[in-house]
């Protein structure tokens, strides 16, 4: 099996840099909050602050969408919500399957934020026969023997893996063979996937390690190797305010 790509510099269809794609959900979240308050327009500075992103970067990102705002007025909130949703493919419903319904899988299944963003949890799958038929978040868990049928019948293209690390590659292979082309992997292991399959990896312990690094630096001011590190990143949200083409999101390419 071919090794999965770990870096995709630009969005396949429109040449949007991957770092911009990673920030679009942040803009969308901030814009949705404005929309809910019926705010009609927003300046790049206000939106950048709400999204936790630098405003020059925001303007550059929006230029990829062909959205330049109106001088003195700003950006039309509703139109930007529509544009970003369309760009992210959120104007359609995405059935998602979660495999591994333990502590994490159950928490994910119970998370209401997926449905409100167009991700419908179509099925829950677990290898433990004792789990079969048990409802989690109102959805009966199905045995992993059913994985291929469930993927096919629900037209699932996004799979979430929350199994132990040792089972993740095998689960991934079965999901891909069944037709899944995007994987969100929570298991602490690197997955190999064929060309054309996207893997994103979430690892909260890595985020904590990065915070620990900064805590250590704040406490001592000394960098690894004895040199004092530059102060520019202190107080920055490194998951959103990235370097020139740097990308350190909480959800990482696998
Ligand atoms: N990414 C993160 O930030 C993060 C945070 C917490 C946990 N995790 C990881 O998520 C995974 C799940 O953690 P947890 O605490 O929910 O574990 P858990 O033991 O509570 O649940 C794992 C579930 O996977 C099922 N399972 C095992 N093999 C399977 C297979 N082949 N097919 C289908 N289901 C299978 C088990 O029956 C069990 O229900 C672990 O790999 C853990 O390291 C990641």
Summarize the entry for a quick read:
With 254 residues, the protein is α/β, with parallel strands linked by helices. It is built from nine helices and ten strands.
Description:
Belongs to the transcriptional regulatory Rex family. Residues 222-254 are annotated as: Disordered. Homodimer. It is found in: Cytoplasm. With 254 residues, the protein is an alpha/beta fold. It has an eight-stranded mixed β-sheet with strand order 5-6-4-3-7-8-9-10. It has a two-stranded antiparallel sheet with strand order 1-2. Helix 1 packs across helix 2. It has helices spanning 18-36, 44-51, 55-64, 77-87, 103-110, 113-116, 147-154, 165-178, 204-220; strands at 41-42, 75-76, 94-99, 119-126, 135-136, 139-143, 158-161, 182-185, 198-202, 251-253. It has nine helices and ten strands. The chain has three domains: 18-87, Winged helix-like DNA-binding domain superfamily/Winged helix DNA-binding domain (Arc Repressor Mutant, subunit A), CATH 1.10.10.10; 94-202, Rossmann fold (3-Layer(aba) Sandwich), CATH 3.40.50; 204-253, no CATH class. A hairpin with a 2-residue loop joins strand 5 (135-136) and strand 6 (139-143). 39% of the residues lie in helices and 16% in strands. The site of nicotinamide-adenine-dinucleotide (NAD) has 24 residues, from helix 5, strand 4 and helix 8.
How many strands in all? 10
Secondary-structure element order, N to C:
HEHHEHEHHEEEHEHEEHE
Number of domains: 3
Separate helix tally: 9
CATH class category label of the largest domain: Alpha Beta
In whole angstroms, the N-to-C terminal distance is 16 Å
State which percent range the strand residues make up. Answer: 15-25%
Assembly classification? single chain
Strands of the widest sheet, in order across it, are 5-6-4-3-7-8-9-10
Radius of gyration: 20 Å
């Amino acid at each position: 099996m071919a090794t999965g790509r770990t870096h995709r510099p630009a969005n396949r269809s429109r040449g949007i840099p991957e770092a911009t794609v990673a920030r679009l959900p942040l803009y969308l979240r901030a814009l949705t909050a404005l929309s809910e308050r019926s705010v009609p327009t927003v300046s790049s500075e206000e939106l950048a602050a709400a999204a936790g992103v630098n405003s020059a970067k925001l303007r550059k990102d929006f230029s990829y969408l062909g959205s330049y705002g109106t001088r003195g007025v700003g950006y039309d909130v509703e139109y930007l919500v529509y544009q970003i949703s369309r760009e992210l493919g959120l104007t359609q419903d995405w059935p998602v399957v979660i495999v591994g319904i333990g502590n994490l899988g159950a928490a994910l299944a119970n998370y209401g934020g997926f449905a409100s963003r167009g991700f419908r949890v179509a099925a829950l799958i677990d290898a433990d026969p004792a789990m079969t038929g048990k409802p989690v978040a109102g959805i009966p868990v199905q045995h992993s023997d059913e994985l291929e049928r469930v993927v096919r019948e629900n037209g699932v293209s996004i799979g979430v893996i929350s199994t132990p690390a040792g089972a993740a590659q095998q689960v991934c292979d079965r999901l891909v063979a069944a037709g899944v082309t995007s994987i969100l992997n929570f298991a602490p292991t690197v997955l190999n996937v064929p060309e054309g399959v996207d893997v994103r990896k979430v690892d909260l312990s890595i985020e904590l390690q990065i915070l620990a690094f900064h805590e250590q630096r704040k406490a001592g001011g000394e960098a690894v190797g004895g040199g004092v590190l530059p102060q520019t990143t202190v107080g920055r949200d490194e998951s959103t305010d990235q370097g020139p083409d740097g990308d350190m999101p909480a959800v990482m390419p696998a």
